Amino acid sequence: MLAIRQIQNxxxxxxxxxxxxxxxxxxxxxxxxxxxxxxxxxxxxxRQLRTARATLADAPVxxxxxxxxxxxxxxxxxGRQFNIEDPNGLAxxxxxxxxxxxx
Length: 103
Known about the structure:
103 residues, alpha+beta, 1 helix, four-stranded mixed sheet
């Protein structure tokens, strides 16, 4: 059983899947389609760098770490995508189809 929680406000949006009493779901991935792939990638990569710097400096880490499974790339089926892992081990895949390209 998965509990789904979504919190939205004008400044922040969060989507969380929390597994029940069983071990995390295996083979589960969530796909997010966007027309802002580079902005999302840049924001998450910047967070990853901030948390790494804080950890190396023995400073308090103020935000959750971001674990990239794949950096930004062009898959064989077109568009651009990257993958991160959420705290429960689920794959979060961000994909921008070629038809949504801002170019």
